[in-house]
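Narrative of activities, Objective 1.

The group set out to show that a structural description can be obtained from nothing but a protein's sequence at a throughput compatible with the screening campaign. Below is one input-output pair from the validation batch, recorded exactly as produced.
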Amino acid sequence: MRDAEFPKFPGESEKTIDFAIIGGGISGLTAAHYLNNYNYMLFEQYAELGGQCRGQTYQGLDYSFGGTRIDVPQGAMEQLLDELNLQPVILQSSQNRFKLDTATEKYWQFLSNESKRDNEVTRDLKKFIDSAKPIWQLIKDGPLQIPLIDMQLSKLDSSIFKDSLTAYSPAFQGLLDSICRVNNCLGVDKISTLAGYATTISLVQPTTVFKGGNAAITKALAASLQDSKHRCQTESFVWAIEIASDHAIVMFSDKEKRMHKVKCKHVIVTSPLLVAARILRNIDDTTKAKMLSFKYGSYLVANFLLKNPVMAGSATNWLGAPYAIKEAFLAETPYQQLGEYSRKMGAVMTLYQPFAPGSQGRTLLLEGDRVKLARTMSEQLEPVCQNLAKELDKVVLSRWGHAMVATNSGFFNKMTQLSAALTDNSSFSLAHSSLQGMPRAESAVAAAHTAVERALRKN
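Output recorded for this entry:
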């Protein structure tokens, strides 16, 4: 598809449906959940639904291939979880840890505004929280979503986060840099000030986790769908979507590589914008150019399956320089909080290694040397994890080069301009998480809500 080498499509549509949904991740499944009573088809290129919110089980311990936590549920996410009867475990921000790697401090430090430990990171944390509170409150009241209408937030989006951090020590800036990279693939020197503050609110804000991470949401969504075996076409690749004023035509290949064509009243595209721009045909050049104007980092998630825990303490553990791994999440945490964990379950560390846009990251991933990458990640962790080599059972690599939109300076303003270009008169909607702001599960659910409402108005 990148080389514009398309197969031959059928001449006529095989069937007509109400809605087509492109992508079976959290956004696509949410859209299907709210279109359950309509005639829809969902197309997912992988054999399993869930997109980047998938996972597996190790010795009775569910773990995630991608996202592991969300904010305390509110709005569209809270409504969805209530409908799915999902109850997450709440983790306080004081349970987060950061690995300092200086000559004098080589311990894991718990991050809390109430910490009694007296060092530059603790002092900087307290100072940063005091200065950030007005902005965090503005983001909460805003709220931070597309379209961006608050002029103060728009101004923050036009600058770089690092310019706001000159009063802080290199060690503390390293902490903020790790948090930003693991959530946005950009460090403090590239991320917009608005996105930087929106990301680092995790320093003080509780988070919620599920057994198995965010895969618990997509599993529950898939289970809620009626007749999903026939309506959800897995192992199906969408090559092109022809857009007309009153309908859309989806051209796709099935798992046997046979080509098909279906007609629908409205299509919801949940893929990243750089992919959506390639497959949507007959949209105006100005809109397509806006869709292709964003940058993307690549991402690697590794799950270390362990016979016994090698890291104790907190669920979320950030690593600063010189570690390329920026976060380690302990999958057993929600089981422990619920009193359902036993030692025979072992442990799973979910590790996140982001690559900035234009870096060597995608090249390394496309080389496909999984053994080398797994060994490199293990070598990074050995100094900070006791008995890692002895307890390591297996390394599972996932999110292989997944494109994560980079929230660099001007991101929200550019996305607002794109949102204004998408009118209700069109027979397609975009529902990628970036259309609602930050690249996270809450944004994906909100984007699906918006797309479904638009599709139903058109219908």
